[in-house]
Amino acid sequence: MGFDPWDAAFVADPYPAYRELRERGRAVWSEATGQWLVPHYADVSALLRDRRLGRTYLHRFTHEEFGRAAPPPEHEPFHTLNDNGLLDLEDPAHGRVRRLVAKAFTPRTVERLAPSVERLARELVGGLRAAGGGDLLTAVAEPLPVAVIAELLGVPEADRPLLRPWSADICGMYELRPSAETARRAVTASLEFSAYLRELIAERRERPGPDLISGLIAAHDEEGRLSEQEMISTCVLLLNAGHEATVNTTVNGWWALFRNPEQLEALRAHRGSTDPKKLSTAVDELMRYDTPLQLFERWVLEDIRIGDVLVPRGAEVALLFGSANRDPARFAAPDVLDLTRADNPHLTFGAGIHYCLGAPLARLELAASFAALLNPDVPPVRLVREPQWRDGYVIRSLRELLVEF
Question: Which residues lie closer than 8 Å to 106 by C-beta, 6 or more apart?
Answer without folding.
Answer: none
